[in-house]
Protein: ABC-type glycerol-3-phosphate transport system substrate-binding protein
Amino acid sequence: MLRRWISFALIVLMSAAILGTGCSDSKGSEAASAAGSTADSSDSSEKVLGVCYFSQMDTLNATVLSNFKRIHSDVNVKEKVLDPEDFDSFQLQFQAELAAGQGADVIFLPAWCLPNDYKLMRDGVLCDLSTLISEDEELKIENYNKTILDTGIYDGKRYIIPIDYCFSYFYTYKTVMGDLKLETSNWTWDDLLKAAKEYFNSSNGKYFLEPDFNFWDMKYSDKNSYVNYDKKTSNFNSEGFIKLLQTYKELLPYVCPNEAEQEETDSEERIKLSVLRTENYTGVVKNAQGVVKPFNEEPIFIPYPTLDGVSNVNAFATNIAAITSKCKYKEEAFDYIKILLSTTIQNDETFNAPVMKSVFEEQSKTFKPVSESKTSITNIFGKINSCTLGDGSVDEIIKAELPAFVSGNKTAEQTAKAIDEKVNAYLKE
Structure:
């Protein structure tokens, strides 16, 4: 499930594999030197475009490639596939290839695969797509979700285009809730913590949250990034982030242990072990057309709380596309991205929420007749007013500090200060 890579893959610095070492050659493409560019290993008279994508997008990328070849039969596409098994400490090689102007021309990857999106934009490693977009007669940027797409803008230039996005939410069922009443329209993390404590005490120790509840979903539901990339400063040593840490730790006693769920063999009884289950939006197939309907009930969808009680939802970009500055054939590369933004590809069930407005609106009809309900998934969609691109390097710093905090060896204040100092140092590299 998506939240599992948010919890784990998001925080691993695996990225140097992306454009060279650690990427396997896709079927049908010629071998390229691991240290060299995917586009530089052929005859200089041949148009070669290096495309790097995630192995889980293999089928979808084959469709994109097929459409691309109809437009550009003269372009030899060299595919490089990033496989999860190759995620390791390749960052130095990755940075070296970028510095040498090598690697892929087109990047089509989950946002968390890149180690430091903002540094890639700031240092000119990625191409500014603004001119390509403005001069293109077919692509109309206004047809796409502005809130999501604008996360790829840095210093007034559009370097990255999110292809889809998701957000965290809770869900439950009337059978699970019983007589429990929750006011969640403008709730805060304090409200959730209070409800968890009261439920736990009144129900002889029944759990409030399922085992998959984690700090990363809390962090990415928070609209505050705590990093100012323009000024190269961080603000993790702040009241808001300290509060987020404290709340997470205080909620842990009310999270159902993994062992308890694993021991329960009946699926509906397993669901009953905790009041709220956590999930990331993963498209209409998963979120609206499930084969199994527990308790023969429609789920009740509940937005994540916020620190200030403002009823807003923060999304995060999942798959992104970009063109590297060294690319010789930028117009052809942009056509590849345009296919990713086309109606057919945006409607592919591989993606989470599509950035194309018309496709999203059509998919929303799938949620009828419950879409008008205050407990529907579309109600949460309507509250999205911010989006996070993410930074794997920052998350790695946070990940390293969390264990000492959770174990009680450090306070929330000490942890926030340590994270802030390390992130500030990282930003000044």
